[in-house]
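Morning run. Coffee first, then this:
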Amino acid sequence: MKIIMEGVAEAFRLIFSLDEEVFEVVGLSLRVSLLSLLIAGVLGIPAGIFIAGHRFRGKRLLMRLIYTLMGMPPVLCGLLVYIALMRRGPLGSLRLNYTVTAMIIVQTLLIFPIITGLTVSAARDRQGKIRRLARTLGADRRQTMQLLLFEMRFGLITAVITGFSRGISEVGAVMIVGGNIDGKTRTMTTYISQLKGMGEFERAVAVGIILLIISFTVNTILCYLQKDPGEELRGGHAGGI
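And here it is:
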């Protein structure tokens, strides 16, 4: 318990003293996770909507594969990416191992099936009704897609939150392909692992607390975007009554 309390105190000291090493690690962690989330979202949301709205041979098998990949062990994903990028691998000529780009690739591969699978779940039951409503209103394809995304916004933001949480908390995969190089590929999770190995438990707890604060802040922003504007109005009317 003493270590935890000292870790809390150390976390606030690091934040308010603007510790250069910690802020460098925080900045890299956010850059990798947010870029991975953006790429996975741009690819995964359209893929999920397409899969949910079309019938084709092998769809059930594809969905089983996606759901399986949603729970893929990160160290396995990291190992596969490392092998693909190693000098003797198929992409070895790119020389991407132990770079930030490799870390973004592996996090994108971990986040993509999560966003795709949750988008399919969000779109499966509502897409048909929404498209029929759009046709009734005379909407074109662009307007139909806008209506579909708006009506699915709660499920989509849930998918984004889940994907971000997977990315920002990842350690095994980014350790394998990034190498935890000081000043280059060290993220908050790999830094915590290193500090634990060095016996600096208070600082490790402190960095962990900062990681939780960042995750809480980002998730709060995303949850705010998820809130139904009419809910606040309905709550206000209920209070008035």
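The first helix runs from residue 2 to 16. Good start to the day.
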